[in-house]
Amino acid sequence: MWLRLSSARRHNAVAAVCAAAFLAGCSYNDDMASAIVAPGKYQLYTCADLTSRGRETAKRERELKALIEKSEQGAGGALVNILAYRTEYLTARGELMQMEAAASAKNCASFLSISERAVQ
Predict the structure, then answer these.
(1) Any residues with CB less than 8 A from the CB of 53 and at least 6 apart, and which?
(2) Is 28 exposed, middle or buried (0-12, 13-18, 19+ CB in 10 A)?
(3) All residues at 6 or more sequence positions from 54 whose CB lies less than 8 Å from its CB, including other chains
(4) From CA 71, how far away is CA 118, in angstroms rounded?
(5) In this structure, which of 10, 45, 46, 66 has its CB flanked by the most CB atoms within 10 Å?
(6) How many CB atoms are located within 10 Å of the residue 118 CB?
């Protein structure tokens, strides 16, 4: 069937698939972030390791968020976000969620909560 389509129709079909993929990739939600990181990745970390790694990851998450907000102001910002920052941002968010779950399971008082990460 694909081979029987005219060149213009094939082009339109490819454009429609690309547009759908582009629009589907515009949102940043926690379900996508948690799906990127392997479950239990931080279960063997100590509280001190979780705190140290959490600070580094939270800092990178804030940097990426600032870059995303800055690029959205320019022309083609959404495309830049998808190509350059989206995967790394979602990975950082997913890792922070996994670290927070591991820290909670271990009763780590030193691990930063979500609200504390936002302030720093």
Answers:
(1) 42, 45, 99
(2) middle
(3) 96, 99, 100, 103, 111, 112, 117
(4) 20
(5) 45
(6) 12
Helix and strand numbers, DSSP H then E, in the chain: 6, 0
Kindly report, residue by residue over 8-31, the tens digit of the pLDDT. 565 555 544 444 444 444 445 556
Taken as a whole, the chain contains a residue count of: 120
**Res 56 pLDDT > 80:** yes
Identify the residue whose tokens are 């690029």. Answer: 71
**Cα–Cα distance between 54 and 98 in angstroms, integer?**
10
Q: Is 107 helix (H, G, I), strand (E, B) or coil?
A: coil
**Residue 11 has which token pair?**
């082009």
Q: Return the closest-CA partner of residue 110 out of 30, 42, 53, 39.
A: 53
pTM (predicted TM-score): 0.66
Residue bearing tokens 């302030």: 119
